[in-house]
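Dear colleague,

Thank you for sharing your sequence with our group. We've completed the structure prediction you requested, and as agreed, I am returning the results in plain text so they can be pasted directly into your records. Please verify that the sequence below matches your submission; if there's any discrepancy, let me know and we will rerun it promptly.
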Amino acid sequence: LKREDLDAVTIATPDQVHREIAIAAMEAGKHVMCEKPMAKTAADARRMYEAAKATGKKLTIGYQHRQKPESIYAKQYIDSGALGEIYYANCLAVRRRGTPNWGVFLDAEAQGGGPIIDIGVHRIDLAWYMMGCPKPVSVMATAIYKIGDYRDEPKVDPVTGEVSATNDWAGAQVSDYKFDVEDSASGVFRFENGAQLIFETSWSFNGPENNSTQIAGDKAGITLEPFKLYKADGEKLVEENVEGDFDGDIFALEIDHFIDCIRNDKIPSSNIDQAVQLQKMLMGIYESSKTGHEVRFAD
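Please find the predicted structure tokens below.
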């Protein structure tokens, strides 16, 4: 960070050290692109936000799905008013067998959570973004911890001791084949404008895999996977495939956007005001699951 020829850094570490590295980098005069989620806690996210405001450095969070060409198109279409008043969204990030088998993804102390903050967060963020980031009022959610012990049929390499990828619930090797993050979750957010967002996410689920985002308004609706418009032509209901050039590596697009924001002093699409709010929403999911009650967000 003492190097004068270093303009920006990217943080791809366990979540528990995002805050420390990001603040040190910004205070050293560097712009920061930090992986999602913004931090392990809402308090850490707030401190990162305050450091960005104090230093004037760009801070963006890795919600790269906002940069997908189809996401940009859909956002413009929604913002044009073509869907009317947005009152409903639904998003899923569900794997049949996809528990991460590397790193510290299964360690609650290092990461803070499982699929909610690993894959579910991308869908929640994208759906919320498409809705116009309405102010959240509450969340009612349940996190599931059913496969944290996957010793039933452990297939372990006798030489390395590593868990085989053929294990039914394969994941990174952890002590006693236990991990302490959730494996699935679902819930509903309610917003100040009356809209709701329903989500489901899982690393390992005995059902179909599903990665989808659906937005509905009182005039029309849209899905991003597949990319379709649902509208009416008089009394005729129409399903229209959206055609266009939607190619591009999502991570390259994210980096290009970050560099453009630095060079031309733009606000990143994954702006930190929304990222801090999203962190509070994620923490609300865990709190609601833990207490068994709806969690209301403070003003």
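Summary note from our side: The first helix runs from residue 18 to 27.

Kind regards,
the structure core
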